[in-house]
Amino acid sequence: MFILFTTMENIPISLSYLETLSTADLIELAEEYDLDIPEQLNRRFIIAELLEIADELNEESFDDFEENLEKIETIKDLPTTYNETQLDVVLRNPAWAYVYWDISVSDLQDVISGKGFSKLLLKINFWSSLTSDKIEDVCELTISEEDRAQYIFLPSGKSCFSIDLIAEFNSIEPKKLTTSRRVQIPSGAPVISLESLEKPITPILKLSGMQELLKSHYENHRQSFT
User: Fold this and answer.
1) Where in the chain is CATH 2.60.40.10?
2) Helices H, strands E: what count in the chain?
3) In Å, how far are 2, 35, 41, 72, 116 from 29, measured between CA atoms?
4) Which residues, listed in sequence order, are joined to residue 88 by a DSSP beta bridge?
5) Is 182 exposed, middle or buried (CB count within 10 Å of its CB: 0-12, 13-18, 19+)?
6) CA–CA separation, 40 and 156 (whole Å)
């Protein structure tokens, strides 16, 4: 329910509030709403007039609100593609990265119809820093033409990485479709080994659950990228 507020004090107009006002204040408030109040009019009639105008204005406000609400377009489902060739990466934690990409229809068609097309892959480049000129290590992950996202497990001891979306061919050089920005891994990716699991860790890291995370990665992913 909409409530009309007085312009003097921003207080909602109600019978209980109007009864607290002096007759002079009631007349002044009535004048603010362009009500013509005859002299010597009983304050009860002034209050009744103010309550009536409040109801009318509230109804108008509600009608305007409903009209505007009808004009608001409902949010449609997001498109599955924006028809742009691009790739980005989000670091979930020092051991996992989430990569997502898109390939425009024209780029994908050019690749697939290219002579000797073999496959698409993600090329993970590891750098010593954000400004380094030399790639220290490389890992590759084959993807399908329909894939648009992938979790990537980061090898131990890495500090910075970027990811290329590559099309490989049997008869010509690979084609880089797009590349991500470089991403800094905080303090480098944790070393996942039996020795590292046996080392004591700080109370803060213990509370964070890092020890359990490293143990899980050691048990399930220590052979990754080998």
Assistant:
1) 86-189
2) 7, 8
3) 19, 9, 14, 35, 84
4) 100
5) middle
6) 90
Cβ atoms of 101 and 165 closer than 8 Å:
yes
Q: Which residues are paired to 151 by β-bridges?
A: 98
d(CA 67, CA 76): 20
What's the pLDDT at 8?
44
What pLDDT digit, counting tens, does each position of 126-173 carry? Answer: 999 999 999 999 999 999 999 999 999 888 788 999 999 999 999 899
Cα 211–Cα 215–Cα 219 angle in degrees, nearest 5? 175
Mean pLDDT, residues 1-6: 45
Distance between CA 46 and CA 142 in Å, rounded? 80
Q: Which of 88, 95, 125, 89 is nearest to 185 (CA)?
A: 95
* Cα 58 from Cα 52, distance rounded (Å): 10
Amino acid at 190: P
**Radius of gyration of the chain, Cα coordinates, nearest whole angstrom:** 34
Pairing of strands 117-127, 160-169: antiparallel
How confident is the model over 29-62, as pLDDT tens digits?
888 877 777 776 778 888 888 888 777 776 766 6
CATH architecture of 86-189: Sandwich (2.60)
Residue 103 CA, distance from chain mean position: 21
Tokens found for residue 73? 């377009």
Question: Rounded to an integer, what distance in angstroms lies between the CA atom of residue 136 and that of residue 149?
Answer: 25
Q: What distance in Å separates the CA atoms of residue 82 and residue 102, rounded to the nearest whole number?
A: 8
